[in-house]
Design a protein that fits this description.
By secondary structure, the chain is α+β, with helices and mostly antiparallel strands. 26% of the residues lie in helices and 29% in strands. The protein binds tryptophan and zinc ion (ZN).
Length: 481
């Protein structure tokens, strides 16, 4: 896959001007007060070591963006990031790939900053003491880049026929806003986007306001989106273009906001009509829905190579099928509300969302989960024998590298782990476990060890050691049960 769209001119230009000037004017780097050390340049992820940063914990992102197509600077942004220092902090990094930074302030005062690769290093005027809540404001602009993942898929900023699309898994959000771009640091968001009046801007959470100003061709509309519940950076989205918008509410009063590219409207109508029913079935099986709105974004086939569980508003490239809608909505519980601590724990997302598809089929006159499990085990699930073999390439909890975190051992074999647990504890206890798991870690982060400990606690006297050893962590195909 080509990396030609990657766009990082700023990486080559050491952006020392702001810092050199500030050094002269303000003596950056903190005189007096507490001694601090720089936060680390990564969040110690085993698969994406540069993703995220250390030394602080973001509580809120306020992104104010303006999108002006067909200009040399299509995106202009101001990001105000509220965070709490987790150490005495003399400097810290944000992740930002490409884009041009104009200025950085900390607590309203101009700060020194430099850029190296995806790290935007900020040196506040004075050391931030541990526990202090502080605001960083970054003014930036440019053409956001498309990022090619180690597995060849494309994310970040994806231009579309009638606008653009921002998708973040695993490290794409740094293409369109400066962030602590790692799933371990969740925050609330205000995403405010101004676009030409002829376009619409759809994002996560609830639409607080939609305001049109200006006259003639200069008319613009500002869409203000609010996400109150914690969200990982990779789940933030922005879809700009022409959409048919449908606003409804579910039976229990949850707002539903669905945006569909008009070209996909006819093909999507029937499946999207099932969204309330799927939500109800998932609430019955997984427990209360964790967020304050739901919906979907359907763009054109080919606008992205995959669907994504963007929080409250999953994204689909073209009309989804029912299984994919079930899958992305299941992620709202497993992935979005309970989020992996690192990218190694991906199976906790994909194994659950895949198992949700099996359960839906079982409950709706399709194959039972046992039949799906058996077909995978026996190699009759796929037409291509190499696909059947691929499930056993590595254990779900230990993908071989970043290039493999979305391979079938994470999805299908991850779901097989859940099925093994269900067979060990029985249906009633199994649903207690998956609901309890979502409730216990609601809005938080968890890893595989947290999960196995939770299962053991919920089913005292049952022996899971073989499942963990052979199905979750073990190499190769486990022996027939
Ligand atoms: N999470 C998406 C899904 O299952 C798939 C996906 C999209 C993905 N981009 C990714 C998985 C990047 C891993 C990495 O619906
Ligand atoms: Zn998924």
């Amino acid at each position: 896959m080509s990396r030609s769209v990657r766009l990082v001119p700023t990486r080559l230009v050491p952006a020392v001007t702001a810092c050199a000037l500030a050094l002269v004017l303000t003596a950056c780097g903190g005189t007096g007060g507490v001694q601090g050390t720089p936060g680390s340049a990564g969040a110690a992820d085993p698969y994406f070591p540069e993703a995220g940063n250390g030394g602080y914990d973001v509580t809120h992102y306020a992104l104010t963006l303006a999108y002006t197509p067909d200009t040399s600077t299509p995106l202009t942004g101001t990001a105000t990031i509220t965070a709490r220092a987790t150490q005495n902090l003399s400097a810290y990094d944000l992740d930002l790939k490409g884009m041009k930074v104009k200025s950085v302030t900390v607590q309203g005062k101009s700060a020194c900053w430099t850029r190296t690769g995806q790290e935007l290093t900020v040196r506040p005027p004075a050391t931030l003491p541990k526990g202090r809540t502080f605001r960083t404001t970054v003014h930036y602009s440019g053409t956001p880049g498309t990022i090619t993942d180690p597995d060849g898929s494309e994310e970040g900023w994806l231009p579309t026929a009638d606008g653009a699309l921002a998708l973040g898994e695993p490290t794409g959000s740094m293409a369109w806003f400066p962030a602590n771009d790692h799933p371990s640091d969740k925050a609330s968001y205000d995403i405010t986007v101004t676009v030409p009046k002829s376009l619409q801007a759809v994002s996560n959470g609830e639409l607080r306001s939609e305001t049109t100003t200006g006259t003639g061709a200069a008319r613009t509309t500002t869409y203000a989106w609010h996400t109150a519940q914690p969200m990982a950076t990779y789940l933030a989205t922005l879809a700009i273009g022409h959409y048919d918008i449908t606003r409804t509410t579910t039976k229990n009063g949850l707002p539903v906001y669905v945006a569909v590219d008009p070209q996909e409207a006819a093909a999507s109508r029937k499946v999207l009509a099932k969204l309330p029913e799927i939500m109800e079935w998932e609430e019955y099986n997984f427990g209360p829905y964790p967020f304050s709105s739901t919906g979907a974004i359907v763009d054109r086939r080919g606008d992205a190579g995959y669907a994504l569980e963007t929080q409250t508003r999953p994204f689909f490239p073209g009309a989804p099928d029912t299984a994919t809608l079930v899958h992305e909505l299941a992620h709202q519980w497993y992935g979005d509300s309970v989020t992996p601590k690192t990218w190694r724990d991906m199976w906790l997302n994909e194994g659950f969302a895949t198992y949700a598809e099996w359960l839906w089929s079982e409950d709706h006159d399709g194959d039972t989960a046992q039949q799906t499990f058996d077909a995978l085990y026996d190699g009759t699930y796929y037409d291509d024998p190499s696909d059947s073999e691929a499930i056993w390439a590595f254990p779900p909890a230990r993908p071989t590298s970043a290039a493999h975190i979305s391979d079938s051992p994470v999805y299908e074999r991850g779901a097989m782990v859940l099925h093994k647990i269900r067979r060990t504890v029985g249906d009633a206890r199994f649903y207690d476990i998956i609901q309890g798991w979502a409730a216990t870690h609601r809005y938080g982060n968890a890893n595989t060890a947290d999960f196995t400990a939770y299962v053991e606690k919920m089913a005292p006297g049952k022996d899971f050691s073989g499942i963990w050893k052979n199905w979750l962590y073990g190499d190769g195909k486990p022996a027939r049960p």
